[in-house]
Amino acid sequence: MNSxxxxxxxxxxxxxAVDVVRDGRYLxxxxxxxxxxxxxxxxxxxxxxxxxxxxxxxxxxxxxTHGTVRVLGRRLGRVDIRELRAHLGHVNPRHPLHSPxxxxxxxxxxxxNSIEPDPFRHPTPDQVAHAEQLIATLGISRRxxxxxxxxxxxxxxxxxxxxxxxxxxxxxLLDEPATGLDLTAREQLLAGLDELRRDHPELAxxxxxxxxxxxxxxxxxxxxxRDGECVxxxxxxxxxxxELISSCFAHPVRITREDGRWAARAAVPx
Length: 270
Ligand SMILES: Nc1ncnc2c1ncn2[C@@H]1O[C@H](COP(=O)(O)OP(=O)(O)OP(=O)(O)O)[C@@H](O)[C@H]1O
Description:
Domain ABC transporter: 13-252
Largest sheet: 6 strands, mixed
Number of helices: 8
Bound molecules: adenosine-5'-triphosphate
Keywords: ATP-binding, Nucleotide-binding
Pfam family, one: ABC_tran
InterPro entries: AAA+_ATPase (IPR003593), ABC_transporter-like_ATP-bd (IPR003439), P-loop_NTPase (IPR027417)
CATH topology of the domain at 8-87 and 173-180 and 203-270: Rossmann fold
Radius of gyration: 19 Å
Number of strands: 12
CATH architecture of the domain at 8-87 and 173-180 and 203-270: 3-Layer(aba) Sandwich
Low-confidence stretches: 1-5
Oligomer: single chain
CATH superfamily of the domain at 8-87 and 173-180 and 203-270: P-loop containing nucleotide triphosphate hydrolases
GO molecular function: ATP binding; ATP hydrolysis activity
């Protein structure tokens, strides 16, 4: 059985007063964030607000210009970044696979974090069973033997989430997972994420989106970014409010929550 990442004693992830400066421009300024096991964060902001820049730091794909980032208790810049990445489930929606692997095979490549299966490493029966269990949780068992080129975008998205979960990461990072999905595919994806979070209470996640409608009901916290700065962060009840979302998007909107899900509409001028 594949072993899980070592359990850090503190938070899974901690960013303190982080700046990212490129070509003399602040893409992030003074952003702090602390993520504990079982927390599911939404990272919200308009185009260009800095969401992907922040997610790249959290996924140990880049370093801050100033400030510190600790992932699984280890400080970026002081540890082998490849070793750290092995414990993070980072879903890249532009997965560069060109061969006709089946859903099961794609999910199993998560063990080696490779695009193609490693010809020298054969998965154990336990690992295959784990892959099949994740495929079931994400609701794509029906397509388990289907080839990658024949999958819909929604099926691909769910396959990649199952793949990212193969090494049993502590933290799952999702960059706009619902983009381009039709209504049914989006709802299936969000239901899959809710189920995953129920089945794995220790897992934490960060999901980037522009749209509140794309947040699973199991979202617990949010960080709102505007022009690289944090407008608000904390539990959803305190952050996904009409006032703060309007400020984050620099546009008057009205936020509602019904059956655990959020919706945003332009506020009607009085
Ligand atoms: N390497 C870079 N060098 C210079 N500017 C960059 C670099 N990467 C991103 N930017 C700029 O930084 C800003 C933030 O980009 P980022 O991709 O983090 O925003 P985002 O919130 O994810 O946007 P979107 O919702 O459009 O994906 C943008 O103005 C972008 O053009």
